[in-house]
Amino acid sequence: MPDASSNQNRGYSAAHFTLQLEGFQAGILKSIEGGAVHTEVMTYQGNGGPPPFVRYRQLGKPKYDDIKITAGMAVSEKLFQWISDFFSGSPTRKDGAIIASDFYYKERARRTFTNALIKEFTFPKLEGSDKGPAYMTVTLAVEDIQFSTKQQGQGDAILDTFAMQTQKSWKACNFKFEIDGAKGIAGAAKRVMKIDSFTVKQNIAEYHMGGFLAPTKTPTVVDTPNLVFYVPEADAQPFFDACTNNNGLAVKNNATPSPVHGRLVVCDNSMAEVFQLEFSQANIFSVTPDRSDSTSEEIKQVKVEVYTEIMKFKYLLKPSPTVA
C-alpha cells in the first residue's frame, strides 16, 4: 500500500475560494453551489432485421448547471457593476473563474466559465436586532465550464487574508429604508424594523443553433419582486391609510393610485453607505397586523407589502485615489 504522506497532491479543505471576473479578483466567497456538467444519453433502436432487437446509446448535448455564489461586502466594484447592469435590464456577459485554495491560500482547483449571465440576485433578510453577518446570493447561467487542478505547492496565492476579515463588515442591522409617498409614510418608514429576503429573477432562454453542440443562453424579461417590511404598530397608521383610503378612493374613481418611491441602503460598520436598491412605480397593497398574544412581550409589528415595477442597483462607495 503506497504511503499517503509521500503523495504531493494531497487533499485539501474546501474552505477558501474566490471569484475572478475578466482576469481580476472580484471577491471572497462564502459558499459556492452548482456548476456541474451533464451530458444527455440518447437511446435509439435500429429498425429492420430479425429479433433480438438491439438498442444503441450515445452521448448528446452537454448541459452546464447554474453556479450559485454567496458573498458578503468584501467584493470588488466589478461585481457590483455587473449586478447594476443586471438590474438596469442591460445584462452583460462575462468570463471568469471560481478558484479554490488550500490552507496556505494557494490555488488548487479552478472552474473556468464563459459567457456568464446573472440569472438571479437574492437579497438577504435585514433586521435591526440582528448583529450577524449578511450575505447576498448571485446565480450565474453559464454556457461552458472547464475544470482544472494544480498539485500542492504549484498554485499561486490568490486570497487576500485582509479581505476575509472585512467579509463580516456587512451586518444585517446596518441598513436604511426610505419611502417618499403619501403624507406620514416617509416618517414612519424610518422606523422599519425588519425587511424580508427577496429575489430578483431574469428568465434565461436557450437558443439552439446549427453547428453548435451547446445552446446559446439569452436573457429575457426581469421579474421584480414585492418588498415586505415590518414597522411597529404604533407607526402603522400612514400605511393603513395609504392602503385603504388613498388606494380605495382611486379605485372607486377609476383612477390610478399615486405611486410611491423609495430606496434600501446597505451600510458598513461605520454606517457609510455602500450600495442601494432604488425602487419606483410602487404601491402598498397589503397591511397585516401581527398575531396578538397576551403572553408575548415583543413589540407589536405590522407587515407591509409593496409591489414594485422598477428596481435599480447602485454602488455608492467612491474608489480610493491612487497614490503617485
Question: In summary, what is this structure?
Answer:
With 324 residues, the protein is mainly β.
Q: How is the biggest beta sheet arranged? A: 8 strands, antiparallel
Secondary structure tally, helices = 4
| Overall number of strands | 19
Query: What's the rounded overall pLDDT mean?
Result: 81
Provide the structure class. Answer: mainly beta
Q: Helix and strand string, N-terminal first?
A: EEEEEHEEEEEHEHEEEEHEEEE
Measured by DSSP, the beta-strand proportion falls in over 45%
Low-confidence stretches: 248-253, 320-324
Radius of gyration: 25 Å
Shape: globular
Distance between the termini: 59 Å
Number of domains: 1
The percentage helix is: 10-25%
Can you give a write-up of this model?
The structure is a single chain. The protein is mainly beta and 324 residues long. It has one domain. Helix content is 12%, strand content 48%. The chain has helices at residues 77-88, 161-166, 185-189, 237-252; strands spanning 16-21, 24-34, 37-45, 55-64, 67-75, 94-101, 107-123, 126-127, 136-141, 144-149, 175-180, 194-195, 198-207, 216-223, 227-232, 260-267, 273-289, 301-307, 310-315. The strands form three sheets. Strands 8, 11, 12, 15, 16, 17, 18 and 19 form an eight-stranded antiparallel sheet that branches.
